[in-house]
What does this fold into?
Amino acid sequence: MTQPSSEATFDVVIVGGAFAGLSAALILGRARRRVLVCDGGPARNAPAHASHGFFANDGTAPRELLQRAREELRPYDSVEVRSILVESASALDASEGSAAAGAGFRLGLADGETVRARFVLLAYGLTDAPPEIPGLADLWGRAVHQCPYCHGWEVRDRPLGLLGSWRTMRQRASLLRGWSTDLTAFIQDAGPESTADAAAVEIDRLARLGVTVRTEPVERVEGVGQGGLRVFLEGGDAIDLGGLFVAPNVTPRSDLATSLGCFPVEGPEGLLPFVRVNDAGETTIPGVFAAGDLLGGTQTVVMAVGSGARAAYVINHRLAHEAAEALLA
Ligand SMILES: Cc1cc2nc3c(=O)[nH]c(=O)nc-3n(C[C@H](O)[C@H](O)[C@H](O)COP(=O)(O)OP(=O)(O)OC[C@H]3O[C@@H](n4cnc5c(N)ncnc54)[C@H](O)[C@@H]3O)c2cc1C
It folds into this structure.
């Protein structure tokens, strides 16, 4: 494919303009780098009314945080923020790039434009797929939560539920006990015959921790009262809770890392939906960095902001070094 000779060139293209991406853009803008931030839509925590646990901004609405972050970028005129999806990314041929630096990358935007970048920062986050239980999606981010650090304080000392597999339930319940000791575990996979014994051992341990265990399938959930919910079990029982914590399945919001050839993170049971990076935030493809929830681990705003900034510092050092080397060559 012949590319237009007028193709815009940036030091860095940031894919995803939420917490990780905008944090990186601020550092790079202040370092006077030419940056394009492309953002394709709402951030992961958009369903939540408030974001908690972010230093000096505890309880601020996610949208307000991001609006402020975009406004803070205004003085840095080398940073351009566009509301657009990046649809493709590939390495440039060696003949297309600078000889001193790596060749760089070409990114295809949803409006058909292609741009070039010396470095790419992937900050496009994850999509949640909560269990498909009627009513649950409607309460996502309000009475149904994924993270006690984010929303545990607001429901402290209320009856709380945990939904999921017996395999991870004890670990999750041990953590949530810090916010409430009135816990009910809704175990949805008491197990095929092969795991029944192991599940029974875990269920017994949960009971010894003071956790009420229910193994009936959850039929549906419904919002009640001041931000609470009612859980309806097969067989007819209904349990009122102040909040329900679930561990959703997550998938990356784009396959750009895969198409660029970046290795995913490996877990004990296979590949995980996260991008592998080194201590500098660089993926297995030199010049491609990743930040935010895409890295897995603790997925919170403050971690996303920190990893975005880390990538930006390293990228700026590389650019500075490459420019100096080119002068000396
Ligand atoms: C319901 C809920 C509540 C939460 N509450 C809290 C909380 O209170 N405190 C806390 O610290 N954390 C909270 N979190 C976690 C927090 O949302 C994430 O850790 C944080 O959003 C990660 O930031 P990020 O920048 O990595 O990704 P995201 O916030 O997911 O942002 C990624 C951005 O990339 C964009 N994008 C995706 N694909 C493309 C593409 N191809 N091209 C261009 N742009 C693209 C998306 O539109 C999005 O704007 C919550 C999460 C959920 C689900």
Summary: The mean pLDDT is 94. The first strand starts at residue 9 and ends at 15. The CA atoms of residues 291 and 308 lie 5 Å apart.
